[in-house]
Amino acid sequence: MPDIEECYNQNKLNLRKVLDALVCQDYDVHRLNGDLINLRKELQKRVEQIVESAQATRTDAISCIEPNDEFESQMRALNEVIECSRKRMEKLQEARESILACAENCVKELLALKIKLKKSYAETLECLKCNAVMATEVEKICSYKRRVSALEISFDEEVNFTKSVEYRLRSFFEELAKRDVPVFCEEDPFDLFDWMPPVKDEIWLQEMIAEMKEVMGRTMINALAEMHMLRPSDPLKFLAMYFYHECSKKKEEEDIPKCD
Fold first, then answer.
1. What span, in angstroms and rounded, lies between the C-alpha atoms of 217 and 235?
2. pTM beyond cutoff 0.85
3. What's the CA gap between 200 and 209, in Å, rounded?
4. Which of 198, 215, 238, 260 has a 20 to 30 A CA-CA distance from 150?
5. How many CB atoms lie within 10 A of CB 20?
């Protein structure tokens, strides 16, 4: 029994390691993409500065009979800047390609580990249930039931964690798919298990919740105000009328369409 549970736990640990590696690779690729973009912008800016300065120098050189060393120096500087940037871009692109090549292997390993984890989960679960059926002592039966429950919770957590990480890496996987990497396989071992992606617009959801709370707050104020207003001898009648009219006034102001 410990052996089969150990196999499940090891597969779970290996799956986490591969997911962590993919997250790191995604971060590194994003960083290198940003470095390449910044380098191109820096090169463009530097070239424009040199060209602008060289055009002014060339104009002066045309009107002058003697050779203009400054113009030649600027042209050499331009070539050096372009060559230096080209080498830096090549190094960044090589590093990027190396990371993507490692990511290809990780994606293949990810699919294999998902299959292994699902298989070891099914085998461990079946083994625990069989032992629970064959057990005669109440303590052992309860122990097996707890282990079955813990195993089911553990596997659900792994499926949810894996799917949430894959959801975050979807743009990275799309980039790998362009390199003919089998990222989106037709028979994913975890596709049969329910999972919902996170809310797309969390800010909109929070605003909606705040609005609902505000409306409910107004409703409660109006209800309490009306309760006090209907009692002639209630000492809080005047205060209740004030709050009721203030809420009504605020509601009318919000309902008035605003002109831009």
1. 23
2. no
3. 15
4. 198
5. 12
Tens-digit pLDDT profile for residues 192-219: 666 566 555 555 555 655 665 566 566 6
Q: Which CATH number fits domain 2-177: 2.40.30, 1.10.287, 1.20.1070, 1.20.120?
A: 1.10.287
The residues near 181 (Cβ < 8 Å, ≥ 6 apart) are 103, 104, 107, 108
Domain boundaries, the chain: 2-177, 202-255
CA 46 to chain centre: 35
Joined together, the tokens standing for residue 249 give 């006034």
pLDDT, tens digit, 9 for 90 and up, residues 97-151: 999 989 989 988 998 899 899 899 999 999 988 988 888 888 888 988 898 999 9
The 3-state DSSP class for residue 35 equals helix
Distance from the first to the final alpha carbon of the chain: 73
Q: CA 102, 106, 112: angle at the middle one, nearest 5?
A: 150
Alpha carbon distance 130, 54 (integer Å)? 84
